[in-house]
Amino acid sequence: QVQLVESGGGLVQAGGSLRLSCAASGSIVSINVMNWYRQAPGKQRELVAAVTNGGSTNYADSVKGRFTISRDNAKSTVALQMNSLKPDDTAVYYCNYRIFSALGSRDYWGQGTQVTVSS
Q1: CA–CA separation, 49 vs 69, rounded Å?
Q2: 3-class state of residue 117 by DSSP
Q3: Hey, is 88 helix, strand or coil?
Q4: Which one, of 99, 105, 95, lies nearest residue 28 by Cα?
Q5: Given CA atoms 97, 8, 55, 62 in this order, what sign does their dihedral have?
Q6: What are the start-end ranges of the E strands in the chain?
Q7: Maximum Cα–Cα distance for the chain, whole Å?
Q8: Measured between alpha carbons, how far apart are the two ends of the chain, in Å?
């Protein structure tokens, strides 16, 4: 059973930086898309950033220019560098690996890591 494990969350002041990392506990290959989602209290989970196995990236408008997603295909890991953090970035952040096949898509999720940005 493959499990994703996030690390790097914590408490930071506004304007600060954090780097989140995500790794798989078991063997997992051919990951089409690696994503970072976040969920703030009382809000729906939202996509923050995505990176394909070809290296194409996509970001939520609210984090463009501040966050950078990167992946290491050899290690099946993904990272999210978060700069110029704002209190609105406070949320639980989840990594997600999505694999496409002829049968459809399969998702793997991490347990989440808390990011708290103080004003």
Answers
A1: 6
A2: strand
A3: helix
A4: 99
A5: positive
A6: 4-7, 10-13, 18-24, 33-39, 46-52, 57-59, 67-72, 77-82, 91-101, 104-109, 113-118
A7: 47
A8: 40
pLDDT tens-digit map of 1-36: 788 999 999 999 999 999 999 999 878 778 899 999
Q: Which two tokens stand for residue 70?
A: 């990167």
- Average of per-residue pLDDT across 41-66: 97
Only one residue has tokens 């790097």, namely 8
Alpha carbon dihedral 108, 110, 79, 66, in 10-degree steps, equals 110
Only one residue has tokens 């978060």, namely 82
Smallest Cα–Cα separation from 91: which of 119, 62, 63, 116? 116
